[in-house]
Amino acid sequence: MGKLVQFVVGFGVGAVAGFITTRLLTPSSSEDLQAGVRHRAETAIEEGKRAGAAQEEALKAQFAQEKRL
């Protein structure tokens, strides 16, 4: 039973140390961090859609040109 108690105490101390370290070293609040990540993800998705549409148009034009030959 001693090893289990040591494990639980060690786990608790590690969790508290991780929480404190995260709170001290994180430059912004979790809401700001989540909003920033969400904004970057949405921006990347939109840019991907635009690039995909442009590539689709280029391939359609190439296909139409090859079809004429």
Describe the structure.
- This protein is mainly alpha-helical.
- The protein has one domain (2-68).
- Helix content is 91%, strand content 0%.
- The protein is built from two helices and no strands.
- It has helices at 2-25, 30-68.
- The termini are far apart.
- The model has no long low-confidence stretch (mean pLDDT 88).
**Helix/sheet category:** mainly alpha
N-to-C SSE series?
HH
Anisotropy-based shape: elongated
Portion in strands? under 5%
Low-confidence runs: none
Multimeric state of these chains? single chain
Main sheet specs: none
Look at the structure and give the mean pLDDT: 88
In summary, what is this structure?
This protein has 69 residues and is an all-alpha fold.
Label this structure with key terms.
single chain, elongated
Provide the fold topology:
Elements: H1 2-25, H2 30-68
